[in-house]
Structure prediction request, 376 residues.
Amino acid sequence: MTLRFTKAINIPTFILACFTASLLFTVLPARADIVIGVAGPFSGQYQSFGTQMLNGVKAAVDAANATGGINGENLSIISADDQCDNRKAEDAAQTLINQSVDVVIGHFCSYPSLNAAKLYAKAQISMISPAASLPALTTSGLGNVVRLAVRDDMQGAFAAKRILQKRADANVAVLNDGSPNNKAITTQFVEAYGKPPSLVASIEPDAKDFSTLLNKIKAQQISTIFFAMNPSDAGHIVAGATQAGLALKFYGSDALLADQYWEAAGPAGENTMASFAPDPQRDAASHAVIAALKLAGQTADGATLPSYAATELFVAAAKAKGPHSGLAISDLLKQGQSVNTALGPLQFDAQGDVKNLNFTWFAWHDGTYQAIVPEN
Prediction:
């Protein structure tokens, strides 16, 4: 089996790496430095992601300080543990606010990020999120947030474009599990598709019997299905369709890149395509940073490079507006100017969403999946 890309609580996900607790650190400011708050899961189930974040920020801070810091001031770090928990995220945010941080890099999980962002907004602190993909983080009117992860719901438009290009005459079914996030993905699909799909439906999660749905698929001569749902449910529908003798092409959101999908679908899931963020380590802009991390005995896996890039964004904005400028940091980044980072040049729209990142396609084959360009 290949190494799995894993999502947790709507988090865009990259390649996992396990770090031991001994790698955790908190760098406290020795004087009135520029203070970067780093908030994330530094203990508990998602600790490895928090460690990756902290490693990335620390490496970027070291690089900035080695070249004179920002306007002659050094950068320092304070960390706060949220364990990817909503309430603990609020506590972590208040800890950083009380420490008068100049910016927050974080959080990692999406709903904790949203809860914390509201507190930072009241405190006039900009927040640069390296990983949270929940649409509401930038669509709910918060003015202090910039994020590097592509919004979950944008997967719908990405899939619609692919299907229009490759299967323009297909009878398409668009299926979700009724959850707000997955309904948002299918809504984006329908809007981008530009014509009514043959079938749009919400299934009951963890249903024991999908025969009614399969009968509709057969009656409407569906040839292509797009899923935004639990991977097990999608897998059971795929297996049931194949058992019913239906010849279908399957597409899905990144939720389908989980072992549970293949466990439920089995060989019927062969060539299923799912969208996912590209591996940042493949970008040439990251190679120097990866080499420096390797020299320091660290890897560039997971949230490391996005957190490094988030720090680079702050440094660039702080050099222009001043490091203690509060909301002026996020305001400047949302003006659309390009900033060179370890992820390549990044630009943001007025909401704080990244403009020039997208998804790539992965295809299942014999129980594993790999990135592909052409479609079989």
Remarks:
- The CA atoms of residues 175 and 201 lie 5 Å apart.
